[in-house]
Design goal:
This protein is α/β, with parallel strands linked by helices and about 775 residues long. About 30% of the residues lie in helices and about 20% in strands. The chain is built from 24 helices and 27 strands.
């Protein structure tokens, strides 16, 4: 054990924290609880670049705060030399030499860009997710970042909400598995592990249920939805050891999440035993005033710190600068601040910042260039792709002599990597066009035409301030001529690969939509290409379901490739040519149209279930593709579903086994999924609930037995009548198959109901 590691032992950390705390003034304590953005941007007027304020003067304000010991954390820094410079400024400006904690939005990679998080969830492969975030953590730590504002673990059931792209979709079981995997990837075996960073799951809690899918708007959730759907991924992240949690912007049931005692104290601290530190989202403490919750910034600061909000994330004029006034006015006791400061200092000591506050800039360059990281990204993109349709086995492509690649997204490096990236190297990004050309080789003619101009947002994105975020307007673009050229190339090709989707600035934060239609003229291009009679493969670049009703009826092969990352084009080519088999599954229910939203697989039976598919008079009320759907190049059959016992006592467990066989003539990947339905009990329960999954790779003719556990964790639920966790005395239908419509079933009887099978009891 090194001297630095010895100093990170819990008893040594606690002793040093108390020593520092005893020497700190009230103003210094407030400084430790303040995190400031550092934006180095050109001058711009308010409203330019999607921002309400001009941030060009902000660096000077931050540096002045650092020099005076009024800041404990900085964010949005990624250059190692700049991080070292500012870290020196912070340490020199602090009377006790306390370093800054550096945070950054490492959402799906830093230099090596992974597929977007919703795509990683579509892999249904926690190991791949963990490996990907370990690469992201290694790169981040190398440049001097200590902490990421991720994973985002908000359940999202309304695809109009742009931040659906950052999470794992609609299901709490899948979402919990992905949350835990990301925490393990970011943090490693323990907080402070070498080449790892602090994980900060967000946005606690309910943010994904914004009214109308409108980002930042209020959220109103029943207790049943909160406990059974929206809170489980957060609890999984906490149980995985997350060192930080970020609060949400919005009102939750009328109380701003950032000032919500029940949420932050009763649930997170007391019920779940979370011991890490809490940070607000940007300006969320300020917004306690905006919400009409606090009377002024002093009141806002006092109320936030009183519910254990340890660190305020602010752009300017931090509310926590008013904490000394709040103490003097009797709005909060100084010992409350002390508790928060202890958590911040503990995190810094456990991360080794007092011993090694600076980074090796030369080593950072080596780590960022590691080719092994690119292979991890390529594998992740391969495993994330979801084959939605493959009529006539058009895929994989078999020795075409000519391919027409069409659509502007096919050759857009910036869109290939998706949103929420800031340190990318576009020169090394492999587009779909480049990937196909590289894989096809010189003997295959690959022609390209965009076919249409880019589409644009009505209202700009706040991320436009960073440059290169909006697609450039092509000079001299003739819409009619370019469409005709695309059609001509398709006519002369053996196969046409059409790439459609949303430009990356159309999804993410502040990127909600009122429609799910393909932006711009993309559907027109697709219809014109299909009309040529040339076989068409449709590639969808997206982070939410889009309106593919026409394509689902008229295009033989549809592959959802998401925003696949740095190596996305290479991975897509691997899939198209059959070098690897697709095996991803949808992490959400794919609606036919926006009018169905929200539509989920885990609804209750409700009234008149026989007409569930006819709730609308003008169109089926069934999804275009069900939750868990995804094809492969193999074909799979499920058989011999058994339970090791057909009856258990509440609190005991049973084991389900099923045989999965690849009955196709090509290797393939499948995700075996187990669902349950409780027939009766003390509450109505959903028609299906995911309770187990395992991804398999099977050769033709190969069979494998998959085992699933059914115990208290799978059978319990939070009951709104008893206001407790229960396992009912009931009969449970058990289904196993390749998606949420699985038909192979058996049943399990549960005798003797058991309440309170969880530490959350009584909250």
């Amino acid at each position: 054990m090194t001297t630095s590691q010895q100093r990170r032992r819990p008893e040594d950390v606690a002793e040093r924290v108390e020593s520092l705390l005893a020497q700190m003034t009230l103003a210094e304590k407030a400084g430790q609880l303040t995190q400031l953005f550092y934006f180095d941007l050109p001058p711009q007027g308010a409203g330019e670049g999607g921002l309400p304020i001009d941030l060009s003067a902000q660096p000077a304000m931050v540096e002045a705060s650092a020099a005076e010991g009024r800041v404990g954390s900085l964010l949005f820094l990624r250059d190692p030399a700049e991080i070292n410079r500012l870290q020196r400024l912070v340490i020199d400006g602090n009377r006790l030499g306390i370093p800054a904690l550096i945070g950054f939005d490492v959402i799906h990679g830093l230099r090596t860009i992974l597929p977007v998080p919703i795509a990683m969830a579509a892999s249904w492969d926690p190991q791949v997710v963990e490996e990907g975030q370990a690469v992201a953590a290694r790169e981040a730590r190398a440049v001097g970042i200590h902490w990421t504002f991720g994973p985002m673990v908000d359940i999202a059931r309304d695809p109009r909400w742009g931040r659906i792209i950052e999470g794992a979709g609609e299901d709490p079981y899948l979402g919990s598995a992905m949350a835990a995997a990301q925490v393990r990837g970011f943090q490693g075996p323990a907080l402070g592990s070498p080449e790892h960073i602090i994980a900060g799951p967000k946005h606690f809690a309910g943010y994904g249920a914004a009214l109308g899918g409108r980002d930042y708007d209020e959220v109103n959730l029943s207790d049943s939805e909160l406990w059974n759907v929206y809170l489980p991924p957060f609890r999984a992240a906490v149980q995985a050891g997350a060192g930080n949690v970020m609060t949400a912007y919005m009102d939750l049931n009328g109380i701003p999440a950032t000032g919500n005692h029940w949420l932050l104290v009763d649930v997170l601290r007391d019920a779940w035993g979370f011991e890490g530190f809490l940070v607000s989202d940007a300006q969320a403490v300020h917004n306690l005033l905006t919400h009409g919750f606090a009377s002024d910034l002093t009141d806002a600061a006092a109320r936030a710190v009183s519910v254990g909000l340890d660190l305020e994330m602010a752009t300017d004029d931090p509310a926590y600068a008013h904490l000394p006034d709040a103490v003097e006015q009797g709005l909060v006791e100084e010992q409350v601040l002390d508790t928060c400061v202890r958590r911040i200092l503990t995190a810094k000591l456990r991360m080794g910042l007092f011993d090694e506050p600076f980074v090796d800039e030369e080593r950072a360059r080596t780590v960022l260039a590691d080719p092994a990281h690119r292979q991890v990204a390529r594998t992740a993109a391969q495993r994330a792709a979801v084959l939605l349709r493959n009529d006539g086995d058009l895929l994989p492509l078999t020795e075409p002599s000519s391919i027409a690649v069409l659509g502007p997204l096919a050759d857009s490096r910036r869109d290939t990597i998706g949103p929420w990236v800031f340190d990318q190297d576009l020169d090394e990004t492999v587009t779909i066009l480049q990937g196909i050309r590289d894989r096809a080789g010189a003997d295959v003619r690959v022609d390209y035409a965009p076919g249409l101009p880019p589409a644009y947002r009505v209202f700009p994105s706040m991320f436009d301030m960073f440059g290169g975020n909006t697609p450039p307007e092509p000079e001299g673009f003739d819409d009619k001529a370019e469409l005709e050229r695309a059609v001509s190339l398709a006519t002369d090709a053996d196969v046409a690969v059409v790439v459609v989707g949303e430009w990356q600035n159309m999804i993410g934060e502040a990127a909600s939509r009122s429609s799910l239609e393909l932006p711009g003229q993309q559907l027109e291009l697709l219809k014109a290409v299909v009309a040529t009679g040339t076989p068409v493969v449709l590639l969808v670049m997206n982070g939410r379901p889009l309106d593919l009703r026409w394509a689902a009826q008229n295009v033989p092969a549809i592959l959802d490739v998401w925003y696949p990352g740095s190596q996305g084009g290479a991975a897509v080519a691997d899939l198209l040519f059959g070098d690897v088999a697709p095996g991803g599954k949808l992490p959400f229910t794919w609606p036919r149209t926006v009018g169905q939203v929200p539509i989920i697989y885990s609804h209750t039976i409700s009234h008149e279930p026989a007409n569930q598919a006819r709730r609308y008079w003008d169109e089926e009320s069934t999804p275009l593709y069900p939750f868990g759907h995804g094809l492969s190049y193999g074909r799979f059959e499920y058989a011999d579903l058994t339970l090791d016992r057909d009856q258990i006592q509440a609190g005991d467990e049973a084991t389900a086994r099923v045989t999965v066989t690849n009955v196709g003539d090509r290797p393939g990947d499948e995700v075996a999924q187990l669902y349950i339905h409780q027939r009766h009990g003390t509450a109505s329960r959903p028609v299906r609930e995911l309770k187990g999954f395992e991804r398999l790779s099977l050769e033709p003719g190969e069979s494998r037995t998959v085992t699933f556990r059914l115990g208290p964790d799978e059978l319990r639920y939070w009951n709104a009548a008893t206001r407790d966790w229960v396992v009912d005395s009931t009969d449970v239908d058990v289904y196993v198959g390749g998606d949420s419509t699985a038909s192979l079933s058996t049943s399990l009887s549960v005798a003797g109901s058991t309440p309170g099978l969880d530490q959350d009891r009584g909250v």
